[in-house]
Structures are given as structure tokens and as C-alpha cells.
């Protein structure tokens, strides 16, 4: 893997560009846009919306060319110091061929998002050698009622506003995957209910060290076999689960995740990696969580790497922010998930 380019850290007073590279939700839930943008400003930043960020074209925020243009424009604009996503979706893969990776490589900056933004993270890693950041989105985390969850805010700021490595990750004290209907504005009536976090668990013990790569598992699968697929040799793979397409309050089913894990094994990925981190499942019943663990055991039984399960990553809240391509360590004996390298530079 070539040496990755680290973007400059974000400072208060900097300007953030916001994009909609996939789903058109920003154009449909104006109160979430307003609250999310206000939260970013409250954190000390200026905000510019992409020209097409509020567009609604059936199931995407404009054409593939328009969505890509917002990204190219922001990477080319010297005033923009970071690019945040309004939300994910299912169609970021359509814009890859329209991105100017030479422009991006010449103008490295912080790129933040999760879920379907996984596709863009992989492309930035492989085509622009850029460290990008798997973390909160504007409509979901920044627009939280009454404000962004402190744990999410803390890890975001530690990751993109500080040149020191993140160091040891500490699990959140409480979490939620409650869904309040944005279209009925149920999210304005009350904060989501939080429940006590029991912490993570080690499904398989051991030590592992390598650069961290991964994302939303169903989004990752869009790129297998393409030039955008990263080099996972000697890496720590993390993955997490998105909402089900049939019910946004539930997670992608365990049986579908089993299929994805089978595909990853068929790709030879499990022979390459040094460890696995699984985000806390979204929208799962206790029975489904138990089934998912059995599936993970079954798919990885022939491999010897540590597996950490139930980490604050992905579609449940709060979440940490992960700089992709950065060195991390896993050690079950010490119960440690540790970032030994920084993701930004001065």
C-alpha cells in the first residue's frame, strides 16, 4: 500500500462544505438540515452547502454528475477545509467515474461520512491515497435533538482537530438505535431514548496490529472486484450494519450479513487481515445479536485473528470517528482497542 496523504487538521473558524453524494433526504427534511448546520456553526465552523446538496431526483440528490461536481468543487476550493456528508444512501457508487482524483490528490482535505459513504472512502483510499474519516453525518448525528451526542462530538474533535493519535478507545456509557420519524417531525418532540452500554466483547481473543480499513458491510460489497477495492493485507477490518431497505427501523438481516461475510471469505480477505472489529448492530433483537455472533464464529473459525464486537461504530449512536488507513492495535488480554497513529497533520 502506498504511503497515504494526511489532510490538514480542522481549526475553529474553518469552512466546511456539505454534500449529498447519494440519497436526497436533505431536500426532504429541512428541519434536520437547519439543526445540523446550526450545530456545526455552534462548534465554531462556517458552512457552505454544495450546489446540488438539496436536490431531489427520485431516489438520489441530483444526477451522478451533479453529485460528483459538488465533491470536485469543494476539493478544488481553497476556502473549504473539510467536506461533510448530509447522509448516505445506496448510490454513491454512481459518482466514482466522475470524480477528479488528481484534483483530490493535489488538494487533500478532511472527508467525513459513514454508511454508503464507505464507497467514497474506498475510492479516496485507492485512487487518491487519501486518509478519510468514517464518522458522523449532518442529518443524523449533528442534527440530533437537542444536540450532537457528547461522545460523538468528543471523538470527532479528537480525530480531526488534533494531531495526536486517538490512543485508547473507551466505550460509551449509553447508546441508542431508536428511530423517530423525521417526516412526521417526531424527532423534534423529544430526544431519543438511551440505554446503558454494556461495552464491547471479544468474540475471539488475541493480539492484532495493522492499518484500519472497512465501513458499512453492504456498501463495501458494491466495490469487490473493482479498482476501488483497498489492499487489506495486514490490516484490521472493521464493519458495521446499515438499516434494512424494507424497514428503516431495523438492521440488515443476519442472513444477509452471513452472505456478505461469505463473500469476504471467498475474496481471501480473512487470510489477509490481522484483526476484526464489528460495530454495535443496529435495530437488532437480542435473538438476532446472538445469531449474528454465531454467524461470525462460523465464518471465521478457520482463521486466527482477534474479533472485537459491539464497538461504537456505525448506525447506532454515539460513534467514534475512524481515520481510514491509520495504524491500530487490538489486545484482548488488556481489553484494548488503540490508535497508535494520527490521521491529520498541522
UniProtKB/TrEMBL annotation:
Keyword Transit peptide: no
SUPFAM superfamilies referenced in this protein's UniProt entry, alphabetically: Class I glutamine amidotransferase-like (SSF52317), LD-carboxypeptidase A C-terminal domain-like (SSF141986)
Keyword Hydrolase appears in the UniProt entry: yes
Domain of life of the source: Bacteria
A Pfam short name: Peptidase_S66
Domain (LD-carboxypeptidase N-terminal): residue spans on this chain: 16-135
Alphabetized CDD domains for the sequence: Peptidase_S66_mccF_like
Active site location: 115 (nucleophile), 240 (charge relay system), 315 (charge relay system)
GO molecular function, one term: carboxypeptidase activity
Record-linked InterPro entries: Carboxypeptidase_A_C_sf, Class_I_gatase-like, LdcA_N, Peptidase_S66_N, Peptidase_S66C, S66_fam
Chain segments annotated as coiled-coil in the UniProt record: none
Domain LD-carboxypeptidase C-terminal: 209-330
Keywords for the protein's UniProt record, in alphabetical order: Carboxypeptidase, Hydrolase, Protease
Family per record: Belongs to the peptidase S66 family.
Protein name: LD-carboxypeptidase
Amino acid at each position: 500500500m502506498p504511503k497515504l496523504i494526511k489532510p490538514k487538521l480542522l481549526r475553529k473558524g474553518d469552512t466546511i462544505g456539505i454534500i449529498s453524494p447519494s440519497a436526497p433526504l436533505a431536500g426532504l427534511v429541512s428541519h434536520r438540515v437547519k439543526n445540523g448546520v446550526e450545530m456545526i456553526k455552534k462548534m465554531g465552523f462556517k458552512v457552505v452547502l454544495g450546489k446540488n446538496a438539496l436536490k431531489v431526483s427520485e431516489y438520489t440528490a441530483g444526477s451522478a454528475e451533479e453529485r460528483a461536481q459538488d465533491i470536485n468543487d469543494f476539493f478544488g476550493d481553497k476556502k473549504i477545509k473539510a467536506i461533510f456528508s448530509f447522509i448516505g444512501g445506496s448510490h454513491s457508487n454512481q459518482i466514482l467515474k466522475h470524480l477528479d482524483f488528481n484534483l483530490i490528490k493535489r488538494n487533500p482535505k478532511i472527508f467525513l461520512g459513514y454508511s454508503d459513504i464507505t464507497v467514497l472512502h474506498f475510492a479516496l483510499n485507492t485512487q487518491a491515497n487519501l486518509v478519510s474519516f468514517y464518522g458522523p453525518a449532518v442529518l443524523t448525528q449533528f442534527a440530533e435533538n437537542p444536540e450532537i451526542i457528547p461522545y460523538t462530538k468528543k471523538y470527532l474533535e479528537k480525530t480531526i482537530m488534533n494531531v495526536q493519535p486517538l490512543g485508547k478507545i473507551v466505550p460509551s456509557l449509553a447508546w441508542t438505535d431508536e428511530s423517530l420519524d423525521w417526516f412526521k417531525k417526531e424527532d423534534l418532540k423529544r430526544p431519543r431514548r438511551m440505554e446503558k452500554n454494556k461495552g464491547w466483547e471479544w468474540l475471539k481473543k488475541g493480539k492484532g496490529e495493522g492499518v484500519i480499513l472497512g465501513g458499512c458491510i453492504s456498501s463495501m460489497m458494491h466495490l469487490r472486484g473493482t479498482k476501488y477495492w483497498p489492499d487489506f493485507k495486514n490490516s484490521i477490518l472493521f464493519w458495521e450494519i446499515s438499516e434494512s431497505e424494507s424497514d428503516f427501523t431495523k438492521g440488515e438481516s443476519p442472513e444477509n450479513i452471513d452472505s456478505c461475510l461469505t463473500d469476504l471469505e471467498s475474496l481471501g480477505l480473512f487470510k489477509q487481515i490481522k484483526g476484526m472489529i464489528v460495530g454495535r448492530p443496529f435495530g437488532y433483537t437480542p435473538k438476532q445479536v446472538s445469531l449474528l455472533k454465531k454467524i461470525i464464529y462460523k465464518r471465521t473459525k478457520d482463521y486466527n485473528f482477534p474479533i472485537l464486537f459491539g464497538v461504537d461504530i456505525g448506525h447506532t449512536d454515539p460513534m467514534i470517528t475512524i481515520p481510514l488507513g491509520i495504524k491500530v492495535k487490538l489486545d484482548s488480554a488488556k481489553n484494548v482497542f488503540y490508535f497508535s497513529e494520527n490521521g491529520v497533520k498541522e
